[in-house]
Amino acid sequence: MPVSSQSYPMSSGDDQHSYIRNSSYQKAAIDGAEKKTRACILENIDLQLNSNLSTFRIADFGCSTGPNTFQAVQNIIDMVKLKHLKENNENSLLPLEFQVFFNDQPNNDFNTLFRTQSPSSEREYFSVGVPGSFYGRVLPRNSIHIGNTSYTTHWLSKVPKHVCDKKSPAWNKNYIHCNNLLEDVTKAYKVQFIEDMGAFIDARAEELVPGGLMIILGQCLPDGVPMYETWQGNVFDTVGDCLMDMAKLGVTSEEKIESFSLPMYFPQFSEVRGVIEHNGSFTIELMETISHPLDDTPLTNDFITSTFRAFLTTIVEKHFGDGAVNELFNQLAKKLTMHPIDFKMWKKQVVYYIVLKRK
Amino acid sequence: MPVSSQSYPMSSGDDQHSYIRNSSYQKAAIDGAEKKTRACILENIDLQLNSNLSTFRIADFGCSTGPNTFQAVQNIIDMVKLKHLKENNENSLLPLEFQVFFNDQPNNDFNTLFRTQSPSSEREYFSVGVPGSFYGRVLPRNSIHIGNTSYTTHWLSKVPKHVCDKKSPAWNKNYIHCNNLLEDVTKAYKVQFIEDMGAFIDARAEELVPGGLMIILGQCLPDGVPMYETWQGNVFDTVGDCLMDMAKLGVTSEEKIESFSLPMYFPQFSEVRGVIEHNGSFTIELMETISHPLDDTPLTNDFITSTFRAFLTTIVEKHFGDGAVNELFNQLAKKLTMHPIDFKMWKKQVVYYIVLKRK
Questions:
Q1: How many whole angstroms separate alpha carbon A133 and alpha carbon A153?
Q2: How distant is the Cα of B151 from the closest Cα of chain A, in angstroms?
Q3: Percent of chain A beyond pLDDT 90?
Q4: Where is the signal peptide (chains A, B) (predicted)?
């Protein structure tokens, strides 16, 4: 059964700061991979998995509140239907039914997810919410035909041991994320990532049917590029600087910052590949990196602030208190205005796209 | 796919007025039927349904926010495990896994449901939330082994046609529920109940596997007893009187009351039996009425007020506005104090208990 883990869901509800309204950066990456997903499903999924197949089960792991999850899932359904029509038109007595399992932590805002999806009369699948950490089992053995996860596994199950411990060589000082400036910190984060990603793959291996596909999309560093050289790393460091400014103003304290580090790690691509290859339950159908589709569009400061706010609010609130969120992101907006990001100067993260087939 | 329907969920959250804290009347009936459920499952469920059975799927239709649903489901799991141990001990290579589908309307408070259930490490089933009206399909064909529903099907999918229409012979005047005083109103409610209960049974017939069990527990009138002769009917009528008092005080208006009638119907037992028998997809393993276990305990006014408030809040709020709820139930408490219910004088509803087996 699922393991417990620290959980800081995306901003709930649907107001101006919610994840629903501030997840278009992630959406762009999903859009960019849509063609690949379509081609991959058409080529790889075997609908003869079970001659009595009447329900096709899809799971999205780390679905948050939408709307990206609905799009990813619809894309998969469209392709399966197309393939099913081609292959089974004459044999099928009953139409294939779809059941979609939307998974996220138990404190995810499932109410908003359920209330914002299309009404059942306009939906061609039975919708289901699955509360639980995807770093453990959340679904029965052999029950899923296609699994999907987008922009999720950079969230670790917990802050790595010792990075918030002032006495440890792996202490992250007043940095708030793994910017790769401190070797022992990087190592601690990497160990945690490998453990978590390994657990993710192990759990999915049990949940997927033989022949089932697992699609994994996320963001990582190109090999050899440290986080502190990327514009994304720079924004995280700037958030840290804002917190330090707030400490000087007495809104928070240096001690609080020194005991804070995000449970988040952007691996280098070879690290992702390593974990996948280490698990022997899948064949790798596709594993590549692509540029983020918005790489050529200089992002506005507002867009960056809103995007970071939507995924950091819960965790900032928990550690620094309710009042800190507005102050922090106002500060961030100001700093970005004073020192705009020169996108040509900074290196960029890339999007990795992986399709696995359960042996 | 599921049909749309009017939906007024039980009071959300877990504060003093929530359904979670005010559903012990319903719990008592479920407790009272527990032994029957256990015996019925042991006797009737066939675990050889499928020789490769590795996941046993249970659904609770109209689960609300808990905790009654967790108890009902655990009771079922305990019995299936017992039976499985007895029958399959030597044959099974892998332990049976359980997946439980908690169904309710999309505006049910699933967040509270997920956050109040035992942590996954202490739970022996995979938990899933299913948003949708149970008067239509909410799950794939042939996917459920045992279905359960407790205290749900007296909620109609909508207020019957014409009972709020002043020009119709089926107009319910200033009564707020079907108290059986007006023949045309009773007829309209009965037609709606038969349609809804029929749709419920039809949908479950598709969702259950052949050999699967459907357990239905609810409250009804003994044959020949009209609602207005029961203490429950009297409480509903008293709620209506309170609204009329509020109209006199200008807090609401008579027009508003005349256009209000609850989408709720307590059938006579023979009406329930009629609908079940009309659907030919099930064999009837058990169909009987039992006294409500609290029938011999005079209920306190506080208990009655809180119980009615927990299931009426949403609908009262929607029709009469936010402010009306407190006022209405304060009035009800006062009226019950001035005119305590003489439980010996009033007739009583009964609990019906039905176990069906999918042919």
A1: 11
A2: 22
A3: 72
A4: none
CB atoms B132 and A127 under 8 Å: yes
DSSP string, A38-99: HHHHHHH--GGG-TT--EEEEEEET-TTSSHHHHHHHHHHHHHHHHHHHHHTTT-SS--EEE
Chain B residues touching A54 at Cβ < 8 A:
140-142
For residue B125, give the chain A residue with the closest CA. A1
What span, in angstroms and rounded, lies between the C-alpha atoms of A66 and A17? 14
Domain with residues B24-358, CATH architecture: 3-Layer(aba) Sandwich (3.40)
> Is A140 in contact with B132 (Cβ distance < 8 A)?
no
Examine the pLDDT at B82 and tell me if it is beyond 50. Answer: yes
Q: In Å, how far from its chain's centre is CA B92?
A: 37
Q: Which chain B residues are within 8 Å of A60, Cβ to Cβ?
A: none
In chain B, where the domains are located: 24-358
Yes or no: say if A151 and A219 are a contact pair by the CB < 8 Å rule. Answer: yes
Report, as an integer, the average pLDDT of A296-313. Answer: 89
Helix B231-248 / helix B324-338 crossing angle, nearest 10 deg: 120
- Mean of the pLDDT values across residues B208-227? 96
B135 to B6, B211, B339: CA distances (angstroms):
11, 22, 38
Q: How far is A89 from chain B (nearest CA, A)?
A: 19
Tokens of B188: 């309209």
- Closest partner CB to B109 (pick from A111, A128, A131): A111
Give Cα A324 to chain centroid, integer Å. Answer: 25
- Give the C-alpha separation, B342 to B347, whole Å: 10
Number of Cα atoms under 13 Å in the Cβ half of residue B216: 28
* B221-to-A172, B226, B227 alpha-carbon distances in Å: 68, 7, 7
User: Nearest C-alpha of chain A: how many angstroms from B91?
Assistant: 18
- Partners of residue A111 in chain B, C-beta under 8 Å: 107, 109-111
Summary mean pLDDT of chain B? 90
Closest alpha carbon to A261 in A357, A191, A158: A158
CB B291 within 8 A of CB B210: no
Instruction: List C-alpha distances in Å: B229 to B226, B276, B343.
Output: 6, 26, 11
CA distance A73 to A124: 11
Q: Does the structure show a pLDDT above 60 at B260?
A: yes
Structure confidence at residue B51 (pLDDT): 58
Q: A59 near A148, Cβ under 8 Å?
A: yes
Question: In A, what residues contact B, Cβ < 8 A?
Answer: 1-4, 54-55, 94, 97, 99, 101, 106-107, 109-111, 114-115, 119-121, 123-124, 126-132, 136-143
> Nearest 5 degrees, angle CA B139-CA B143-CA B146?
100
Chain A residues near residue B132 by CB distance under 8 angstroms: 120, 126-127
The winner for highest mean pLDDT among A286-295, A296-305, B154-163 is: B154-163
Round to the nearest angstrom and report the end-to-end CA distance of chain A. Answer: 23
* Residues in Cβ contact with A93 at an 8 Å cutoff, skipping those fewer than 6 apart: none
Cα–Cα distance for residue pair B188/B222, rounded to 1 Å: 20
